[in-house]
Every structure is written in structure tokens, then in C-alpha cells.
Write a structure and sequence with these properties.
Its EC number is 2.7.13.3. It is a multi-pass membrane protein. By secondary structure, this protein is an alpha+beta fold. The chain contains 15 helices and 12 strands. A 5-stranded antiparallel beta sheet has the order 2-1-5-4-3. A 5-stranded mixed beta sheet has the order 7-9-10-12-11.
Length: 596
């Protein structure tokens, strides 16, 4: 059984072996180079000494020849030169004995020199040393040739030393190359063994991780001889088992949650269409199937294609990008089993906890009966207003004539009753006019007279109209315009009516010492006009119905509750959108967004 070894230990031993081999090769190369350098230095020094002695001997011999050939030889100079020559020969012999003197050498040179001196002493004409074929000349030539031979030997020895040094250098380079090759082979084998030994378990773990990522937790984990790999494999197996249990638990919870959500969706009275991020239908509840006359074969289609309303795709893409619809969408008209139905709808994005949008929900509400009732009510109000306007106008005129002719004292009870009747008649006339105007807007009978309008002037004129009323109540009325605003094509008279209604409501619901701001600013391709106060505010539960007709909110009520509904109709007729922001006790802001 193999002993389990840590990966760090294996790597340390492998790298140590490589370093050891490399160091041995380097040490061998250094020793060889140093030995070769020392040997070469000794040989070169020996040969250079030989060359130096040879040159000195030849120079001294030349000096002796000059003395010999002189017609009047100088015995002292000759003796001095002879002693110098013998001294150099003795140095050469000593050097030769210390080194390797197998060849001609300085011993032979000394013998030749002594023979030459003997021949010189026996010569009949010493001055004729180099002429003829006498024994003296032969001895001289033998001596000279011996010195030349020794000189050549020294040169040949130097060349031979260089050659051997070159060969040894090549040998050392070859040995170092072999060591490098051995290190390379050992490193490759070691790396391959490590990669094979540890790469296979890692690849097996990668494959196991891929299987786990795909939901397959039945994986086979590798066994390695490395302690770290075994620990990693063990913990990987523990993690896989925990994930398997967690997935099983999550699947059960998801199924239960999906069933509960399905039950909730199916029990809702409104139709629900679930849409994915690509704009395709994912789910529709039974109510939506009944409202639209669909079955599940519509799933996967685009919203606009399924409902045959291409503009719905643009609205859906706006919602999926995180935007909001700037105005209330028109009712959907559908034919189901030969019956025409009207459906209101809303589009709401479905967002992840991290913020990105997963899809959208479309809520459908059947308003067929409600729209029929509203149409009947509108027609009734329009006809009743027309029918009431003529007699009430006549009554008001007759009462006015009666009041002018009646001469009651100003502080009498009769005068108070006449004033009360006159106020109620005016309120009744105003109510009839409001009903007529509201009916005209709802039935599309009201036409706009569009003209360029300067927003700054529009707000200043509105402030001027209510300057007196605000001063009487001790309320400050301000105009705040941010930056230059473009001129808008609007019906200024109708917008004056909207601003008058909003400012009147703000004055009625703001306490003495309060503040009302008339504001205007540009936001993208829209101009936002708002009336903001710091009054009593509007309860959250009432803000959703505040623009409905005949609805009054707040503690101070007046009129018939048609003012804000009429304002909304006017703004929508301009292609804009009206809304409200309010916090109870902190004030209210009504705004209208008009296209540039």
C-alpha cells in the first residue's frame, strides 16, 4: 500500500531532485574548468620559460660569435659571454628537470656548446668560424640547430596545449549539455508524472462539478495518493451530498409554493397574463381564458400578436425596461362568442430581489357593464343638465327681477333669505354648468383651441388671479420656474380652469400662514406643472379615488366633487397625464405632465 504523501512534499522532493542534478552538473563543470585552467596555465608557463631561455641563449651565442669573428678578439668579453651562456644552460637544465625534458633539451644544448668551445679552441684560424667545412663550423651548426629545434618544440607544445584545452572545453560543454538534457528529461518526466497523478483527479472533480451543476448528484469521486487531493475530494463529496439534500428540500418547497401561487392566481377575480422578459406569454389564469376566449395554445406568442394590438408590444417593452406608462391605457375591446367585451388592463414589471426585471404581469378587469353604466349616466347627466339649465336659468332671472323690485331693509330677515336663495341659485347654476362641461369632455364633444403658450406667463397670471384671496387668508403664493421652458401648444383657457381649480382647493385645505407653490420644470420630453401646498394632505386610502367624479376628500368639502375629475379630463385631452403626491399632515402636490 502506497504511503499517502502531501502534494507539497511531492513537489518539494521533485524540485529538490532537479536542483540536485543541476548542482552536480554545475559542480562537475566548475571542477573540470578549474582543473583545465590550472593545467593549461602550468604548461603555457613552462613553454614560455623555455622560449625565453632559448631566445636568451641565441642572443648570447650571437654576442659570442661577434667576439669570435673579430680580428682582435676580446678574451674578457668572450669569457663573460661564455659564463652567461653556461648559466642560461644550467637554468634550462634545471627547468627541464622540473618539467618534462624527453626531447632534445638543454642538456644536449650544453653538450653541443662544450663541443663547440673545444672545436673553437683547436681551430687554426678562429676568425674563420663560419667559413669552410671545418669541424668548428659543423659544431656551430649543430648547436644552432639544437636551439632552433628546442624553440620549435616549445611552440609545438603551446599549440598542443591549446588544442588539448579546446578538446577538453568541448568535452566539458558536452558534459554540461548532457547534464542539462538530463535535467530537462527528469523535469519533463516529473512534470508529466505530477500532471498525470494530480491532473486526472482534478479533471474528475471538474466533471463531477459539471454533473452537479446540471442537477446530477450521483457522481463518482476520484481517489488520489496526495493528502490534499483526498481532503478536497472528501469535502467535495460532503458538499455534493448537502446540495442534493438542499435541492430535494428546495424542490419540495418550490412545488408547494408553485401550487399555492397557482391556487391564488386561479382564485383571483381578474384575469392575469404572465409574460417573460422576451415579451412572450408564459401563463394565463382561468379568468383570463374566459375573458379572452383563449386556451393554452396562445402561450409562447407575443402579447401584441395574441391580442391583435401591436401598440401593446411598445408598452410592454417600456415596462420591461423599467419605465411606466405615462397615461391610462385605452380599454381593450374583444369579441368572445359573438359578445363584445371591454377590458381595462395594467402592466406591472416583475423584478428580482437584485433589481433586474424577470418579466411582467398584465391584469385584466372586465368593465363592460361599468362602461355601459357610465355611458348611460353620462347621457342622463348631459340630457338632465340641458333640461334643467333652461328652467333654472329662467327661475334665476325671475328671482333677480323680484329681488330688484323688493325693497326689504338690508338688516331684515327677508333680505337674508333672499341672499341665501341667490347663493343657492348660483351654486345650482354652477353645478349644472360643471355637469354639462364634464359630460362634454367624457363624450368627446369638447374641442381644444390650441395656441403657443408661455408657461411662465400662465403661472404668473394664475398667481395674480388668487393674490387677493391668498392675502386675505394669510397664505403666501409663489411661482417657481426652473430654467427656460419651451412654448407649448395648449388651450390656455382650459389650463387656466385647471390651475384655478387646483389653487382654489389648495387655499381651502391650507391653514393661515401656509405656503402654496406654483412650479414648472422640464423632465425629458415633458413639462411638469404642479401646485404644491403644505396643508392638511390627503389620506392614502383616498388618493386612488380622488380623480373620480362626485368624490370629495378631506375635512373641508365643497361643490359636487367634479373639479378634479374635470381637470383630469382636460389634461388627458391635451395628451398629458395628471397625478398627485401627498402625505397626511405634510401637504399635497398635484401635477400635470404635458408633452413638449
Amino acid at each position: 500500500m502506497k504511503l499517502a504523501m502531501k502534494l507539497r512534499t511531492r513537489l518539494f522532493l521533485s524540485i529538490s531532485a532537479l536542483i540536485t542534478v543541476a548542482l552536480l552538473g554545475l559542480l562537475l563543470g566548475l571542477v573540470s574548468v578549474m582543473q583545465m585552467a590550472a593545467t593549461q596555465e602550468a604548461l603555457v608557463r613552462e613553454n614560455f620559460v623555455t622560449l625565453d631561455l632559448g631566445l636568451k641563449l641565441r642572443q648570447t651565442l650571437g654576442d659570442q660569435l661577434m667576439v669570435m669573428v673579430n680580428e682582435t678578439p676580446n678574451p674578457a668579453a668572450f669569457e663573460s659571454s661564455r659564463q652567461r651562456y653556461l648559466q642560461l644552460l644550467d637554468e634550462g637544465i634545471a627547468h627541464e628537470q622540473a618539467g618534462n625534458g624527453d626531447l632534445y633539451g638543454f642538456k644536449q644544448a650544453k653538450a653541443d656548446y662544450l663541443d663547440f668551445l673545444e672545436a673553437y679552441s683547436q681551430a687554426r684560424e678562429p676568425t674563420q668560424v663560419l667559413s669552410g667545412k671545418e669541424a668548428l663550423t659543423e659544431k656551430f651548426n649543430a648547436l644552432r640547430n639544437g636551439l632552433i629545434t628546442e624553440h620549435k618544440r616549445a611552440l609545438d607544445s603551446i599549440n598542443d596545449t591549446e588544442r588539448r584545452a579546446r578538446e577538453r572545453a568541448l568535452l566539458i560543454a558536452g558534459l554540461l549539455g548532457l547534464v542539462g538534457l538530463a535535467v530537462l528529461i527528469i523535469g519533463f518526466v516529473t512534470a508529466h508524472a505530477i500532471a498525470r497523478r494530480f491532473g486526472a483527479p482534478i479533471e474528475a472533480l471538474v466533471q463531477a462539478a459539471d454533473n452537479i451543476g446540471q442537477g446530477n448528484f450521483e457522481v463518482t469521486l476520484p481517489v488520489s495518493s496526495a493528502v490534499e487531493m483526498n481532503q478536497l475530494t472528501k469535502r467535495f463529496g460532503i458538499m455534493a451530498e448537502a446540495l442534493r439534500e438542499h435541492q430535494a428540500m428546495n424542490i419540495d418547497e418550490l412545488l408547494a409554493g408553485q401550487q399555492r401561487l397557482q391556487a391564488v392566481l386561479d382564485s383571483i377575480d381578474d384575469g392575469l397574463l404572465m409574460i417573460d422578459r422576451d415579451g412572450h406569454l408564459e401563463h394565463l389564469n382561468p379568468v383570463a381564458q374566459r375573458q379572452l376566449g383563449w386556451d393554452t395554445d396562445r402561450l409562447g406568442q407575443g402579447l401584441g400578436t395574441a391580442l391583435e394590438r401591436p401598440e401593446l408590444d411598445e408598452q410592454l417593452q417600456l415596462v420591461l425596461r423599467g419605465g411606466t406608462l405615462e397615461r391610462a391605457p385605452e380599454d381593450l375591446s374583444v369579441e368572445v362568442d359573438g359578445e363584445s367585451r371591454l377590458l381595462t388592463y395594467s402592466l406591472t414589471p416583475v423584478s428580482h430581489t437584485q433589481g433586474h426585471i424577470l418579466g411582467a404581469v398584465m391584469v385584466l378587469h372586465d368593465v363592460t357593464e361599468q362602461r355601459a353604466f357610465e355611458r348611460v349616466r353620462s347621457e342622463f347627466v348631459l340630457r338632465a343638465s340641458h333640461e334643467l339649465r333652461t328652467p333654472v336659468t329662467g327661475m334665476h332671472m325671475a328671482f333677480g327681477l323680484f329681488r330688484e323690485r323688493a325693497k326689504f331693509p338690508a338688516d331684515s330677515r327677508e333680505a337674508d333669505l333672499l341672499d341665501t336663495v341667490n347663493e343657492e341659485m348660483q351654486r345650482l347654476m354652477q353645478l349644472i354648468n360643471d355637469l354639462l362641461n364634464f359630460s362634454r369632455y367624457q363624450n368627446g364633444l369638447q374641442k381644444l383651441t390650441l395656441a403657443p403658450c408661455v408657461i411662465e406667463d400662465l403661472l404668473e397670471q394664475a398667481r395674480a388671479r388668487f393674490a387677493g384671496a391668498s392675502a386675505l387668508k394669510g397664505i403666501e403664493l409663489l411661482v417657481e420656474v426652473q430654467g427656460p421652458l419651451p412654448r407649448l401648444q395648449v388651450d390656455q383657457g382650459q389650463l387656466d380652469r385647471v390651475l384655478d381649480n387646483l389653487i382654489d382647493n389648495a387655499l381651502r385645505h391650507t391653514a393661515e400662514g401656509g405656503l402654496i407653490r406654483l412650479q414648472a420644470r422640464r423632465h425629458g420630453e415633458r413639462v411638469i406643472i404642479s401646485v404644491e401646498d403644505n396643508g392638511e394632505g390627503i389620506a392614502y386610502g383616498q388618493q386612488g379615488r380622488i380623480f373620480e367624479p362626485f368624490v370629495q376628500v378631506g375635512r373641508k368639502k365643497g361643490g359636487a366633487g367634479l373639479g378634479l375629475a374635470l381637470c383630469k379630463e382636460i389634461v388627458q385631452l391635451h395628451g398629458g397625464r395628471m397625478g398627485v403626491y401627498s402625505r397626511p399632515g405634510q401637504g399635497t402636490q398635484f401635477y400635470m405632465a404635458l408633452a413638449v
